[in-house]
């Protein structure tokens, strides 16, 4: 503990009277140093004007909007591709089943008017009808051919022949029926195309 009677005591605490003017001067000195170039924090001037900053912000916003639009388009495209995969998933199966239907129809044609096979033919016709109804139920429709204008997107020409009934370029006969699943062709119709009347040849 310091001795107040001994001014030479090193433990003697000295105090100075509080001077508000001195304190204000110190604050002013610190503030001046903060704004000086002596290494303290100060505003950074990068040379950009307010117009430059505004243009940079607008460009950044434009890039964000473009990226958002691209992501939205990608999402829509992926969803559309997924829906198409579901929509046309049965395409390979239909391609394998259609020849079976062709053979059933050929069997009916081969039996003709044979009375001995009338019961069998009737049974096969019922199977064919059930087969076709099932195809339609799953959106597999026959492609119109005879009497239609030849369309290479839906018809496959296997021959040509003159016709008094159909003008040139129109399907005169369907050899093998074609089918389409929704908007896609499972297989084209095999057709014979009219070359017009022989009198015009």
Q: What would your notes on this structure say?
A:
The protein has four helices and six strands. The chain has 201 residues and is of the alpha+beta class. It starts with 19 loop residues before the first helix and ends in a 7-residue tail after the last strand. The chain has helices at residues 20-34, 50-87, 91-111, 118-137; strands spanning 140-142, 155-161, 171-176, 179-181, 184-187, 189-194. The strands form two sheets. It has a three-stranded antiparallel β-sheet with strand order 1-4-5. Helix 3 (91-111) packs antiparallel against helix 4 (118-137). Among the domains are: 64-138, GrpE nucleotide exchange factor, coiled-coil domain (Hemagglutinin Ectodomain, Chain B, Alpha-Beta Complex); 140-201, Head domain of nucleotide exchange factor GrpE (Nucleotide Exchange Factor Grpe, Chain A, domain 2, Roll), CATH 2.30.22.10.
């Amino acid at each position: 503990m310091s001795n107040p009677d001994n001014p030479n005591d090193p433990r003697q605490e000295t105090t100075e009277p509080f001077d508000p003017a001195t304190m204000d001067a110190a604050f002013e000195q610190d503030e001046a140093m903060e704004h000086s170039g002596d290494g303290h924090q100060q505003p950074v001037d990068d040379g950009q004007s307010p117009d430059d900053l505004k243009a940079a912000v607008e460009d950044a916003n434009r890039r964000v909007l473009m990226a958002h639009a691209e992501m939205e388009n990608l999402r829509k495209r992926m969803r559309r591709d997924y829906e198409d995969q579901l929509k046309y998933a049965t395409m390979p199966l239909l391609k394998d089943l259609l020849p079976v239907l062709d053979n059933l129809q050929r069997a009916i044609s081969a039996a003709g008017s044979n009375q001995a096979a009338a019961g069998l033919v009737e049974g096969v016709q019922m199977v064919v009808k059930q087969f076709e109804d099932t195809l339609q139920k799953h959106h597999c429709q026959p492609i119109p051919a005879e009497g239609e204008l030849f369309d290479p997107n839906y018809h496959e020409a296997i021959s040509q022949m003159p016709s008094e009934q159909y003008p040139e370029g129109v399907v005169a006969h369907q050899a093998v029926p074609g089918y389409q699943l929704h908007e896609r062709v499972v297989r084209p119709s095999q057709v014979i195309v009219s070359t017009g009347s022989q009198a015009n040849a």
